[in-house]
User: Which sequence fits this backbone?
């Protein structure tokens, strides 16, 4: 009997033996006999409060709740985010995945700012996010707020097309639990977590996990038989991670210190279609310390945090591994202070300042070896004023931020939003115009690879091509985006909500590649500011429905159409993001919770060889879970119909994956 | 891709059937938030002293607009406090609120009823809402969800102006705010 079958059979037997489940806590029909002190201690979970807050939001915002995360078939953050309207999440391999937004090209992940409780976790050298090794368990997430559109007016660089703010559970709200998850292809994850009170006002939580993404073999796909068993495989990673959160709650102030560390080894496909598989070792950490103090109705918040990535890659030569490159540090230290003023008549004002230090050091196995060691500092100030007019029927939000990076001209990002409320605030009309910018990453300026079969240079590097042509380096300028959008949010009652946005983006100095010389079949590419403008227009529609007190459903539709100016005039359609995307699903909340969702993603096309088109695909994900006393059992399948598809050209094909999970709370 | 064999499919099917089979006939919905908030409303009525003229007879609770109490209102109406019956009335926007002891203002109602709320200053009517900053803007009790739990924010001065006395039991579990 295989391991998987044993787990499934054991699960069924456990359920049968347990018989009728123990009644859940607070299964009484009312709580009128419960004391006030006990009422204040009862945990409730409701997305309704967040939904109510969103009605007044001056932006296109989606909230992913803890229920969405816990009860769906998703086992990674990217799988969760794939069902958020306006986001395109894609899995290249089980160890390589990304998220982009609003028509941006795949591999443009640096255009979304990702935060954990306000601390950026974008990697300093290239601006993207290391999603698989991000040291944060799904169990420890309270909710995820996704803000779509230009957000640099408050968040600064990298918040070009949006912000994903992952909010973690307070320490006091975390259960003591142990979780075992196993699935096809040798996927397994073991995690344990717990929390304890350290006195009347301090709470500490900690968690740890081990995750093996896959242990199958892909040798036959590449016609490379006879490789040793310990050869790193493209979709395999072993990732260890730990995390903690320490909270202090006083009468007028609170303090949180939290963070995570992960270390792992993964098989890494360096570029599409590459038959040589890198072995990559990574160590990631993030840290966040936040202090807030209420001053009447005003409040002060101070935050200091850090993020770092260390990585070493080797590629397989056919006999052994050889050093390829090492990222000695990808460091970011970030400090933020802002003061919230709510005592002004009809206004809410935020005044803030931000300091950051980022640094990257790379060592690359060129001949001769190449390395760079760069750092940069940021000083920024921002302001946001929300003004209520016309008896709170009109909300005007004005914000602006000035960023001065050491090696970049000062950047000013303004934003204005108007919300008009109708029908007792059941309808919210919004109009937004704003700008955002992206600072060129260290890799875009300083990366340089020159070895047989591969030549790639950063914009600021002086280099010589294979045929002796000298290319002088030139620093990249910031990339700018102008965002204009109209939207409407309707929530006639607690059971139904509809949000529609129509947007138009203009992106200048779009990141491009310049071909210097193709020699011996090797494409010589380099980063450069092309000076082209990319125009993206789109519509996003998100509907949520709750019916019968048990069933909730959602339906999202995204249309995005991008055009790129060409140097000689005219435009071409930029098809590197799916033009149409439909996602939807429903959840039945009973003693058994059934979550079924699916998505259709349109085809994408690339202009540069060897990238090939990615066909459109439809996939369904299902999860069935049941709580039995202290145990929760979940069976899930992604790509339920086993419809093999690619989400990125020339990387791994996605197929059905069945997983079983048992969680014990104590 | 690994095919599921017949034995695997049978095991998986048995697992799902087992889950569904063991479901109790009387399924229990997770409406804890509604129960907690209704219980708070009950306790507010229980731990308040009304001025003369309002201290006898039924305790009338008016609910205006959308509310978070789920199906708890009929259960609330079946309760008694010190021999006084609780009466729950669903009221439309614009209704006369002066005949109520407690008024819960639903989503969006606190702003719309601002004039009505201010007009109740001379009446011993205790106002409750979930709207953000309700208590600091003149309401008496604001229900908030913090850290996955329901808490109260109380503007004691707003109660005093209305000649309503809030007992120590209520104040000791709440965050006190001022205008």
Assistant:
């Amino acid at each position: 009997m295989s391991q998987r079958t044993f787990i499934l059979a054991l699960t069924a037997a456990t359920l049968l033996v347990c018989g009728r489940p123990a009644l859940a806590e607070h299964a009484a029909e009312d709580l009128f006999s419960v004391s006030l002190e006990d009422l204040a201690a009862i945990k409730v979970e409701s997305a309704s409060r967040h939904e109510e807050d969103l009605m007044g939001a001056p932006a296109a915002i989606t909230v992913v709740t803890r229920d969405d995360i816990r009860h769906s078939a998703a086992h990674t953050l990217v799988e969760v985010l794939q069902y958020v309207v306006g986001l395109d999440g894609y899995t290249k391999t089980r160890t390589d995945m990304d998220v982009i937004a609003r028509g941006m090209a795949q591999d443009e992940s640096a255009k979304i700012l990702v935060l954990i409780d306000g601390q950026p976790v974008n990697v300093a050298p290239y601006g993207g996010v290391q999603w698989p090794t991000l040291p944060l368990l799904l169990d420890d997430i309270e909710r995820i707020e996704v803000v779509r559109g230009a957000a640099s007016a408050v968040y600064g660089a990298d918040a070009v097309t949006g912000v994903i703010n992952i909010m973690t559970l307070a320490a006091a709200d975390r259960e003591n639990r142990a979780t075992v998850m196993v699935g096809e292809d040798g996927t397994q994850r073991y995690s344990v977590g717990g929390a304890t009170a350290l006195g009347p006002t301090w709470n500490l939580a900690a968690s740890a996990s081990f995750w093996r993404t896959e242990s199958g073999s892909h040798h036959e796909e590449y016609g490379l038989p006879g490789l040793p068993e310990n050869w790193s495989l493209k979709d395999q990673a072993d990732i260890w991670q730990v995390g903690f959160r320490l909270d202090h709650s006083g009468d007028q102030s609170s303090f949180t210190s939290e963070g995570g560390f992960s270390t792992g080894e993964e098989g890494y496909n360096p570029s599409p279609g590459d038959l040589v598989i890198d072995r990559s070792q990574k160590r990631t950490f993030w840290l966040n310390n936040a202090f807030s103090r209420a001053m009447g109705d005003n409040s002060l918040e101070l935050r200091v945090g850090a993020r770092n990535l260390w990585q070493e890659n080797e590629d397989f030569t056919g006999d052994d591994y050889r050093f390829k490159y090492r990222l000695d540090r990808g460091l970011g230290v970030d400090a933020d202070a802002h003061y919230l003023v709510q005592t002004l008549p009809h206004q809410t004002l935020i005044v803030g300042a931000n300091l950051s230090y980022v640094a990257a050091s790379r060592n690359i196995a060129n001949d001769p070896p190449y390395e760079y060691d760069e750092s940069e500092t940021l000083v920024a100030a921002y302001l946001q004023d929300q003004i209520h007019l016309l008896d709170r029927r009109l909300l005007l939000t004005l914000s602006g931020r000035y960023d001065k990076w050491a090696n970049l001209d000062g950047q000013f990002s303004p934003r204005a939003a108007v919300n008009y409320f109708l029908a007792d605030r059941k309808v919210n009309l919004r109009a937004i115009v704003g700008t955002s910018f992206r600072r060129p990453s260290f890799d875009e300026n300083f990366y340089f690879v020159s070895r047989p079969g591969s030549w790639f240079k950063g914009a600021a590097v002086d280099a010589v091509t294979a045929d002796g042509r000298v290319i002088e380096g030139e620093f990249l300028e910031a990339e700018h985006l102008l965002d204009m959008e109209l939207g409407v949010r309707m929530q006639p009652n607690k059971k139904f909500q509809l949000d529609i946005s129509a947007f138009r983006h203009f992106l200048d100095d779009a990141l491009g590649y310049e071909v210097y010389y193709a020699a011996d079949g090797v494409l010589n590419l380099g980063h450069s500011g092309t000076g082209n403008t990319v125009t993206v227009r789109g519509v996003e529609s998100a509907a949520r429905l709750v019916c019968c007190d048990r069933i909730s459903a959602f339906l999202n539709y995204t249309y995005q159409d991008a055009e790129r100016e060409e140097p000689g005039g005219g435009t071409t359609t930029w098809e590197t993001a799916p033009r149409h995307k439909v996602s939807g699903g429903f959840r039945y909340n009973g003693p058994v919770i059934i979550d079924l969702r699916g998505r259709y993603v349109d085809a994408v096309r690339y202009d540069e060889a060897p990238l090939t088109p990615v066909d459109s695909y439809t996939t369904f994900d299902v999860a069935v879970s049941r709580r039995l006393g202290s145990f929760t059992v979940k069976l899930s399948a992604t790509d339920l119909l086993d419809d093999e598809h690619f989400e990125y050209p020339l990387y791994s094909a996605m197929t059905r994956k069945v997983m079983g999970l048992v969680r014990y709370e104590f | 891709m690994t095919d599921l064999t017949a034995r695997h499919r049978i095991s998986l099917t048995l697992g799902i059937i087992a889950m569904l089979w063991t479901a109790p006939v009387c399924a229990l919905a997770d409406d804890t938030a509604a129960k907690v908030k209704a219980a708070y409303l009950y306790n507010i009525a229980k731990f308040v002293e009304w001025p003369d003229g309002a201290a006898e007879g039924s305790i009338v609770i008016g609910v205006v607009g959308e509310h978070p109490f789920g199906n708890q209102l009929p259960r609330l109406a079946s309760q008694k406090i010190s021999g006084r019956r609780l009466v729950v009335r669903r009221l439309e926007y614009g209704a006369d609120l002066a005949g109520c002891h407690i008024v819960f203002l639903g989503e969006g109602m606190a702003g719309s009823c601002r004039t009505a709320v201010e007009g109740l200053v001379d009446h011993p009517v205790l106002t409750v809402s979930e709207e953000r900053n309700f208590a600091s803007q003149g309401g008496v009790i604001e229900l908030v969800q913090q850290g996955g739990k329901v808490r109260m924010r109380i503007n004691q001065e707003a109660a005093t102006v209305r000649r309503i006395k809030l007992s120590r039991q209520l104040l000791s579990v709440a965050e006190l705010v001022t205008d």
The domain at 3-665 of chain A is CATH 2.40.170.20 (Maltoporin; Chain A).
